[in-house]
Amino acid sequence: MKLEFPKDFLWGSATASYQVEGAVNQDGKGMTSWDKYYHMPNRKYNGDVSTDHYNRYKEDIKLLSEINQKTYRFSVSWARIFPNGSGEINEKGLQFYDNLVDELLANNIEPNLTLYHWDMPLALMYKGGWLNREVVDNFVEYSKVLFTHFRGRVKLWSTINEPASEVMGGYIQGAHPPLRKNYTEALQVAHHLNLAHAKAVKLFNEMNMEGEIGIVLNPIPIHPASNKEEDIIAAKRAYDFYSDWYIAPILAGKYPEIMLEECQKKYNSPKIEPGDMEILKGAKVDYLGVNYYMRRVVANNPDSTGNIDDCFKNVRVKDGNYTEWGWEIYPEGLYELLSRIQKDYGKIDFYITENGMGFYDKVESNGQVVDDDRLDYIRQHIIQIHRCLEDGINIKGYYVWSAIDLLSWTNGFEKRYGLIRVDFDTLERSIKKSGRWYADFIANNYIEYNE
Ligand code: GCO
Hints:
There is one protein chain. This protein has 15 helices and 15 strands. The chain has a single domain, classed as Glycosidases (TIM Barrel, Alpha-Beta Barrel). The chain is 41% helix and 16% strand. Strands 2-3-4-5-6-8-11-12 form an eight-stranded parallel beta barrel, surrounded by five helices. The longest helix has 24 residues, at 183-206. It is globular and about 60 Å long. It is of the alpha/beta class. Bound molecules: D-gluconic acid.
């Protein structure tokens, strides 16, 4: 059977500035939170050079064109535009993204620009980062520069990438800058990210920008470990915590009620100022970007300390299919998740802004990467996209994470995601088997499906 896709479906792949650009001090770029993090003692690697995409973007775009990409998602490093986070613009930084966008357009690749993918200008981090409400306005100022500059050339915009990861990594687990473990701060940061997003969307509309603007979330479908009521309750709580806490303010301008009440009682957070919820409600997105990698299965945690994230615990499924990095491969979860969001909030356009598989790639003696598992992972998820489309879920594009091997935030260069391989000693690029397969698939726009 042939699973065919709409002609205008946008197939592509994605990266993020800090993960690929390198050029840490080039052309007047300011320091970022991640530069600081990786320059702390005992870090084994950093993004100072990474793939050196900043200097090799032409070669990279040529490869993207060779594998038939119709669209490419990238992020702008705020500190290249505003080395101090606000105030004076660094024209050379802007020039880089100018060149990148023009090169993409010249190759018929639709740019999808993410304004913020975690690399916060250090100057703003020193002001308190997202915990400081003023940074919301700095973000709007920065967004305005990019909207003005790329008007008409960039048609697909995302405000913020995975606020949940920013909140959890930076303020709950203390694994990302600024290495905090504080629920009160975490909840406030989430609220400020929502405000920043909403104000940027409002500006986009006021400026009558052409194209579409949305946000990129990473909601996770959650299954209870058993039919026991306590596990079912735990699964509901986990869905609120991982997923709905971020979806509800974007799609409905509210926070999930039970969790909000609990957070305000327990942590006195988030502080919501009069008018804030109206701002969130007023910012209608054109689409929801969804990064999907896995599902979670959770059980009640009898040893809970009462914190919002430990009334449930993650469980490993006995016959589950896990990656080398312990992420469960569960393609149906994509369909389940989007169906659930549509059921909860009504019809909306989606882009799958990231989906892919992290691996220790093996290189054959002839230099090839024969990544059949990654290829199969991508294929299985594309089949689920078809299932969504058949079922009236409107997905308009899909981005493999990642276009090219890059720096994994906390796993370094070992965890590979790319369709294109990078030899980090020589910085040579080569297309992997998954990249060739994806190119053929895009050219055909159908999948032969006999399972
Ligand atoms: C990693 C992660 C990232 C994310 C991406 C989120 O290993 O570092 O998987 O690469 O997927 O940055 O938007």
